[in-house]
Amino acid sequence: TTLGYTAEWAGLATAPVGLLAVVLSPLVGRNLNRMNLRVAVSFAFIVFAWTSFWFAGFSTGSTFWQLVEPRLVQGIAIAFFFIPL
Predict the structure, then answer these.
(1) Which residue ranges traverse the bilayer (predicted)?
(2) Which of 15, 40, 53, 80 is the most exposed place for a label (fewest CB within 10 A)?
(3) Is residue 53 part of a domain?
């Protein structure tokens, strides 16, 4: 890859999206009756937009943690987006 990651490191850099979604989905699902679903999905879209702009600032000199941090945030948004659907 451009960053020189092995398959293992590339997986570790992208795994937080799925891990946080798996961990938070049951919590979001249990609390759906307490929240406005439109607000939850809108929150997710706003976070997706924010992380997209965050990703746009990356370069080939980005560190591992610079790649992982926005993916963690994106994992939170995925839980709030898919569960209400």
Answers:
(1) 6-27, 39-58
(2) 53
(3) yes
pTM of the entire predicted model? 0.79
Number of domains in the chain: 1
Which residue segment(s) compose the domain that 48 sits in? 7-82
Please count the other Cβ atoms lying within 10 Å of the Cβ belonging to residue 42.
13
2 falls within a domain: no
Amino acid identity of residue 3, one-letter, is L
Asked if residue 79 lies in contact with residue 20, where contact means CB atoms within 8 angstroms, the answer is yes
Q: What dihedral do alpha carbons 74, 77, 78, 84 form, nearest 10°? A: 180
pLDDT per residue over 8-43, tens digit each?
A: 988 888 898 999 989 998 998 898 889 888 998 999
In-domain check, residue 63: yes
Own/partner long-range contacts of 27-36 (Cβ < 8 Å, ≥24 apart) = 27/79, 28/79, 28/80, 28/83, 28/84, 29/83, 32/83, 32/84
